[in-house]
Amino acid sequence: MSSSSGTSGPNDDDPHPSGWQPRDPTLPGPAARRRRPRRLLRTLLGLLLLGTLLLAGAFAAGYLLVEIPPANAAAVAQSNVYLYRDGTPLARDGEVNRENVPLHQVPLAVRRAVLAAEERDFHTSRAVDPKAMVRAAWNTVTGKGRQSGSTITQQYVKNYYLGQEQTLSRKAKEFFIALKLGREKSKEEILQGYLNTSYFGRNAYGIQAAARAYYGKDVERLDTAEGAYLASLLKAPSAYDVTTHPENRAKAVARWHYVLDGMVSEGWLTPAARAAARFPAPQTARAATALSGQRGYLVQAVEEYLTDHGIVDEKTLAGGGFRITTTLEPAKQAALVEAVEDRVVSRLDPANVPTDRFVRVGAAAVDPADGKVLALYGGVDYTQQYVNNATRRDYQVGSTFKPFVFTAAVQNGSQTQTGQPITPYTVYDGTNRRPVEGWGGGPYDPANEDEASYGEIAVGAATDLSVNTVYAQMAVDVGPAHVRRTAIALGLPGTTPDLTASPSIALGAATASVLDMASAYATLAAHGRNGTYSLVEEISRNGQEVELPAVARRQAVSREAADTTTSVLRSVVETGTGTAAQTAGRPAAGKTGTAEDDKAAWFAGYTPELAAVVAMMGQDPESGSQEPLYGALGQPRMNGGGVPAEIWGRFTRDALAGTPPRDFELRLMPGAEAPPVPPVPDGAEDWYESEETGEAGPGAASRSPGVGAAGAGHGGPGVGPGAGAGTGHGGPGVGPGPSTGHAGPGVGPAPAPAPTRGQ
């Protein structure tokens, strides 16, 4: 039965029951709305996890794949540093101004100043600081200035292993290498590397180079204030250099204060010391001089010494990093340069005197007491003329070799062809082109200078006048092989070119260097004691000392042989061809020499305290060929008794200024003492002095009296066959007869009127 009332209940078959609005099928239902945030959260978490995994994978891959590379070439490049004997800078030979030092050589206060400037918690912090990196990146992006956010370890990695380029790949490598380095190296090793690779401006890489560039001292001598200034430079090296950028002084000083205040806050500096600190103004920046002037020649000579003596091989030396203290003394070096400048360089006029283009000068000075080289002159400027005139071995030494012949004669107890012992008073035939006797190697008849003949002449006077025929015969009497051995014993290298055992050895055909000759003459000055000359006092690399070979002093020739030679050479300076050397103002011995065709002129001499040799050489600057020096410096001829002796005299005077003169303490061979002096015979011929060369010839005793040298240091040996007496302080007389007072043996006739010079 159906109901007729207007009320009805819900009908299950009615899809739209009363009281419900139809639902939009495109809208999610309540359940779906509840699931959406969860799905989003799961997605975000998934993405975060994936990102984390990717980052972790990338980190792991980067850590595994990025190896610590070898140091970059620039980071390990160092110059070799050369110092004078007193520790003052001489030169450096590399383009990179760096000298590595071990950490212990850097004062603790200087190390702490660097930490105060760059990373105060360095010893407790990690190798990288991600927060600082993010902060630096944000500040850079927002315009607050470019910042690196790098720790000292990261900066060291950039300096030593990578480079300065600003790229993401370089930053990524820096990050991973720093992490590994922090695990593998100690903080001390990293700090040492950082200090040695950081740039401080003025082309100074590393703290040692910076100490030299800004304060002219080694790093171990820096004080706290100076260390704080160098530390402040690390932020802006060139900008904070108050001498080159005085406009930035306020900023530089403010940075310096920041460093010191940081040291106080860390407990590294007391407030009292901080208050007492004053800004340490650095020295004025100097232009890089590299190897200009004499520096290049000195460095070259030292390098040759090190390699030739097997101390350091050439390849290792070229690698740099050596600190070399030489035996050279700055005052004596300056004196030698000034003497050459005064007597030669300032007088050159190549525009009007063509021969002046050929003039070259080489010089060397050696301490007879220990064989140390005190000064060298290699040429006008290493950057203009690369050949070192002090060490080259291609110019004949001329008559400066003759003293070695006489030394060999005394050393070996040699006799003449007639059985007479060779002494300063032994008479030889000085006739021009006289053939030597007793030589089985073929005819040899050398000419005297200017074809002059002297007849019978004593050895001492023949030395004064540099008579070739006498010394060629003496070389045969001694034995050329003995002469050669004696020259080597005195200091000439056995490999010296043209040092041949023949009569010509006496005339100086050998081409020893100026330094070789200075070493040999120093042996004579040291009473015959010799050892290999030395150019290096100390050498180290990265703080490690390199062992130097011991230089044993030995008696090369007997004292009597050396001292008797000295007595003869004193006469050369006092009355012979070397009188220009008297400007030294103290007792001296020496010998002049001129090479064939005037291609070189030498003076070699010594006092008890100093031996030095000076040579002028002729060389075409374009072809390099040896050229005669006729007309150079406005002089018709160039001889050893001229400009070379003048240079020697001035240098010796200035080098020994302030030291009292010392006389030679000589122990002579038997028969070398001055004999009694007979009266002057009637008709004795006068001797004269050549106006052309200024060197002694016949008549010199009467016109140019001087102090003799033989015997007790006053008498001089005789010349010629006649007997005669010298007067006052006369020089060597002519003839075997003795002299009176301080004179040499008497003056007698000589058959040749022509003047002569030492060759």
Question: What is the number of strand segments?
Answer: 16
Q: Indicate the overall shape.
A: elongated
Helical percentage? 25-40%
Q: How many angstroms does the end-to-end distance come to? A: 164 Å
Contiguous uncertain segments of 5+ residues: 1-9, 683-759
Content-based structural category: alpha+beta
Beta-strand percent range: 5-15%
Mean pLDDT: 81
Oligomer designation: single chain
Strands ordered across the widest β-sheet: 2-1-5-11-12
Can you count the helices? 22
| Biggest pleated-sheet summary | 5 strands, mixed
Whole-number radius of gyration?
42 Å
Explained architecture:
This protein is an alpha+beta fold and 759 residues long. The chain is 34% helix and 9% strand. It has 22 helices and 16 strands. It has a five-stranded mixed β-sheet with strand order 2-1-5-11-12, with helices on one face. A five-stranded antiparallel β-sheet has the order 7-6-16-15-14, sandwiched between helices. A two-stranded parallel sheet has the order 3-4. A hairpin with a 5-residue loop joins strand 1 and strand 2. Helix 15 packs parallel to helix 17.
